[in-house]
Design a protein that fits this description.
single chain, 162 residues, mainly alpha
C-alpha cells in the first residue's frame, strides 16, 4: 500500500514539475515583471526542434537559446511585439503558435478545412455506393426469389395430384 502511494506521488510530481524544469535558474531574470513578460512570450513561440511544444516548456538546446534571446531583447528594452517581430524575422512565421492570416500562411488556415471537406465527400461517396450495391443485391435476391416461387407454383399446378 505504501509502495503504491510513493509511486503515485513520484509520478504526479514528475508530471506536474516537468515544465518547470525547462527554464533553468540561470535563465530567470532578476526583474519579476520582465521575467513574467519573457515567460508569456516564450509560451507563444514554438520550439523549432520539438515542433508542438513552446520554448517555455521545451528542454531542447535551441529552445534554451531562444529563451535567452527573448530575455536579452527584453532587457535591451524591446516591447513584446518587437521581440516577436525579431523572432519572426529570424525564423519565419513557423515559430509562432498562432501564425497571422496572410498569403504565405493561408495554407495553414485553409488546409484543415479542405481536408475535412474532402474526407466528408469521400465518406459520403463510399456510403452512397454501398447503399446502391445493397439495394441492387436486395432487388436481385427478391427477383430471384420471386421467379423461384413462380416456378414452384407453376410446377405444382402442372403436376397431377394423387
Amino acid at each position: 500500500m505504501i509502495r503504491r502511494i510513493v509511486i503515485t506521488a513520484v509520478t504526479l510530481a514528475m508530471l506536474v514539475s516537468q515544465p518547470a524544469f525547462a527554464v533553468e535558474p540561470d535563465e530567470i531574470l532578476a526583474d519579476p515583471v520582465l521575467e513574467e513578460r519573457a515567460r508569456a512570450i516564450s509560451k507563444q513561440v514554438r520550439c523549432v526542434v520539438c515542433q508542438n511544444q513552446d520554448i517555455d516548456s521545451s528542454n531542447a538546446g535551441v529552445a534554451r537559446d531562444l529563451r535567452l534571446l527573448v530575455r536579452e531583447r527584453l532587457v535591451a528594452g524591446d516591447s513584446d511585439q518587437q521581440v516577436m517581430d525579431f523572432l519572426v524575422a529570424r525564423y519565419g512565421d513557423y515559430v509562432l503558435f498562432n501564425p497571422p492570416w496572410k498569403p504565405s500562411t493561408y495554407i495553414l488556415w485553409v488546409a484543415p478545412i479542405v481536408i475535412l471537406g474532402l474526407g466528408g465527400i469521400a465518406t459520403a461517396a463510399v456510403l452512397t455506393q454501398n447503399a446502391r450495391r445493397y439495394r441492387k443485391s436486395r432487388n436481385q435476391e427478391t427477383a430471384h426469389g420471386a421467379s423461384e416461387e413462380r416456378n414452384s407454383e407453376n410446377h405444382s399446378l402442372t403436376e397431377p395430384h394423387a
